[in-house]
Design goal:
The structure is a single chain. The protein is of the alpha+beta class and about 450 residues long. The chain folds into 3 domains: about 15-180, no CATH class; about 190-275 and about 340-440, L,D-transpeptidase catalytic domain-like; about 280-335. It has 14 helices and 15 strands. The strands form 3 sheets. Strands 1-2-3-12-10-9-4-13 form an 8-stranded mixed beta barrel. A hairpin with a 7-residue loop joins β9 (about 345-350) and β10. α9 packs antiparallel against α10. The longest helix has 24 residues, at about 115-135. One of its GO terms (molecular function) is carboxypeptidase activity. Belongs to the YkuD family. Pathway: Cell wall biogenesis; peptidoglycan biosynthesis.
């Protein structure tokens, strides 16, 4: 976090020759961004809420506008940072440059009037906050997740954090320090950033886009500073568990088939359930199990499936006239009994998401040996469930209890104190097994 700094005065004014030279340097620093005549500037920019809050809390007037060398240098440094750094951070500089005042000559000279100065100062702040926000928590446009239960809990705190940091900036070095401090410095992030630089040098557009999205996802995950968190990369079919941003556990997973994709979301793991029931989703029940029941209910015995009525009571499947049951009038639920032959194995990691998707053990261990591990109906099967549970819970699991496979064992619910955040993402470029950058097949054809 940036510490408070002494506010500096205005400094010396430019002389005419110095001012002209400064204008030339400033104009060149814009790269390909061409200014347009001043009359094309709207009289008042559409301000985001965050910019309005920034100025409501500010007592020192303008942060960017003024003819003094310090503020002129601050303006120029922001433009330089956008032009020089964005590509290497996986960001699109045009997103921020287009927010700046278009009258480059007028702004460099300190503006042509009080109203213009105010508008231009707001525009610089808008561009700066957009850039700093994307540098801090990743560009939301690259996130591509469904439900996000994590970000909404810290949104207001994140905004105030950025406002307070920008309020401490008064000279170019302050801005440099802020930009440097907002980016993660973990080994994995730096590996990805170096890979992006290499691809920018080679001009591989596809890999540049993939690495850029992954860098933004990493900034998003890291900005929370969670003491513990889990990341499942569907494209890589891998799970990583972190503590204090350091990788502690890596394992293979089995994700959803392309026809039954694992959804992308962010949630919490709040429970570890030992000897879980498998409550069969209705889509699987009516499409896969019901047709067998119409032929012979013995399939339910083979699968160790119970039939529950609408009140949650176990009923005898032979008491049901299956010939009259259709997809439309199906009002029962299939539930697989607990044990090692349960589809969820003996451990389930409950997730607080709106999807019926969770992490779990499996009775089909051989699938982890395959390189293409996209076989499930959407849930995520984990290779090392016991090791993961031991990290999440305060007490290690009792191996003898898990191995006993007691008939009729009821589920045992253990609370995950925290709880622990879980990111289910789809990144076709990522760190493989914690140490090297690898590119993955776009199995879901989402990376278009």
């Amino acid at each position: 976090m940036l510490h408070c700094r002494k506010k500096y005065g205005c400094g010396c004014l430019f002389g005419k020759t110095t001012k002209r030279l400064f204008l030339v340097v400033l104009l060149l620093s814009w790269g390909g961004y061409m200014p347009v005549p001043a009359q094309h500037i709207s009289p008042e920019p559409v301000l985001p809420v965050l910019v309005e809050v920034f100025y409501k809390n500010r007592k020192d007037g303008y942060i960017w506008m003024g003819a003094d060398t310090q503020r002129a240098g601050l303006r120029m440094r922001l433009i330089q940072l956008l032009n020089e750094r964005c590509a290497f951070q996986g960001l699109d500089k045009s997103k921020y440059l287009k927010l700046l005042p278009r009258d480059a000559f007028g702004m460099a000279a300190g503006s042509s009037g009080e109203d213009s100065s105010r508008v231009n100062d707001y525009r610089y702040t808008h561009a700066a906050l957009e850039y700093l926000n994307d540098l801090f928590q990743g560009d939301p446009a690259t996130r591509k997740t469904g439900d996000d239960a994590l970000s909404r809990t810290v949104k207001e705190a994140d905004q105030h954090y950025l406002i307070n940091l920008l309020a401490e900036v008064s000279k170019p070095k302050d801005l440099d320090d802020l930009v440097n401090r907002l980016e993660p410095a973990t080994s994995q992030y730096l590996l990805l950033k170096n890979a992006l630089k290499a691809q920018l040098d080679s001009g591989n557009v596809v890999r540049i886009r993939r690495l850029s999205e992954t860098l933004n996802n990493y900034r998003w995950m890291y900005h929370f500073h969670f003491p513990k968190f889990i990341v499942v990369n569907i494209a890589a079919a891998e799970l990583n568990y972190y503590e204090q941003d350091s990788l502690k556990l890596n394992m293979r997973v089995v994700a959803g088939k392309p026809s039954t994709k694992t959804p992308r979301f962010a949630a919490y793991c709040d429970q570890v359930i030992l000897y879980p029931y498998w409550n069969v989703p209705k889509s699987i029940a009516v499409n896969e199990i019901l047709p067998f029941c119409k032929k012979n209910t013995a399939v339910l015995d083979l699968l160790r499936m119970q039939v529950l009525n609408s009140r949650g009571q176990v009923v005898n499947p032979r008491s049901i006239n299956w010939s009259k049951i259709t997809k439309q009038n199906f009002s029962y639920q299939f539930r697989q009994a607990t044990g090692r032959d349960n589809a969820l194995g003996v451990i389930k990691f409950n997730l607080t998401s709106p999807y019926s998707v969770y992490l779990h053990d499996t009775n089909l261990k051989a699938a982890f040996k395959s390189e293409k591990r996209y076989l499930s109906h959407g849930c995520v099967r984990v290779e090392k469930p016991v090791e993961l549970a031991d990290y999440l819970l305060e007490e290690k699991l009792d191996a003898s209890f898990l191995n006993a496979n007691s008939k009729g064992q009821k589920p045992v619910i253990k609370t995950v104190h925290g709880p622990v955040p879980v990111f289910i993402l789809y990144m076709t470029a990522d760190i493989k097994e914690g140490s090297m950058v690898q590119y993955f097949e776009d199995v879901y054809t989402l990376d278009q």
